[in-house]
Model the fold of this input.
Amino acid sequence: MSSVFESALESYSRLGIDVEKAIDRLKSVSLGVHCWQADDVGGFEHAGAELGGGGIQVTGNYPGKAGTLDELRGDLEKAFSLIPGEHRLNLHASYADFSKTGFVERDKIGPEHFETWLEWAQKLGIKLDFNATCFSHPKADDGFTLSHRKKEIREFWINHVKQARKIAAYFGEKQGSPCIHNIWIPDGSKDIPVDRYGYRKRLQESLDEIFTLELSKDYVRDAVESKLFGIGSEAFVVGSHEFYMGYSQTRNTLLCMDMGHFHLTESVADKISSFFLYQDELLLHVSRPVRWDSDHVVVMNDDLMQLMQELVRADAVEKTHIGLDFFDGTINRIGAYALGSRSALKGLLAAFLEPTDLLQKYDSEENYFARLALLEECKTLPLGAVWDEYCRRMGTLEDNALIQEVMDYENSVLSQRK
Ligand code: RNT
Ligand code: ZN
Done:
């Protein structure tokens, strides 16, 4: 045991905090690591496929982006080796492997197009989550999918999402752990719509049709993700927060809250306690919006720290699936994975190391100065020493070795790519 860690134990125990318990709690958390940071959300349906539509955008042209499924898997293996703990991989339907079957349209995809992913994941002991991909497609070009005015377009996307749910259920059955399947659609308009109700009614009906396909909750858990606005959907987003709060509550699906999908002065952390008064399972997309839903790499800012504190304080860690959703094409993408995932975990560790009982006591005594002072004190407790010890125990490198490791991978692998 390092002397730095021992002195950290002492600092925490003075506040009555059990560091070993916090470490054990962190070990039991699996992040849903997204597959799309390594290739800027391009997917592999066509050579050179690019992100399109729906107000999600990736900026940057940093060299070394994964250009094939093999490269992507290599990058993910590297990224997973840099994230302490056991984590899941969150796949998008646009990452199908058509090498054995030939290309099929999105409404025709099935488990056979993801067999190599499952094999890969099982070899590495990684569980899979899944997403329908209702963007970057000609049938989504005019900005609407499940809420489209045209029946044939809606039907195409309804069939796609049904197929995606079957794939998710297949994963869930094979891996012995429910696969979280998330639905996010880009539907919305740049300028003021008149028939808002009509679009939302059609979205509701499409989703209801999708869920007539009954699948075991032991295999798949469906979530719906809201959004406030996007580039090109400034005036109207069909799947708003209110829409999906109502939908998830009445249809008994999970709700997905993405940190970038609210007004920026709104706090997702503040929503947790209300949410769990009415529903009992939540999906998060942990992200870092900078001025808009920019999907910056997650760092330990106030939004993140407060979100994790709230999960711990509301006793919601076990009831929450913590997915990641960031993508930055201006920096080393494997470094981005490692940094963002590690920061999410550090935020959670800080929350597990909070003297919650003492804070609650000050709270109940209405001693708001003491409450505030202790919250400030917590910010300078030796979190880094506990984190380093955690990384050592999990066989992952410590923060001070991360930069060199990422640079080595860049030199030996990424820079060799065309
Ligand atoms: C888009 C949503 C959605 C996507 C991924 C790729 O604004 O956040 O979750 O980022 O599905
Ligand atoms: Zn998201």
In short: The mean pLDDT is 97. DSSP finds 14 helices and ten strands in the chain. The radius of gyration is 22 Å.
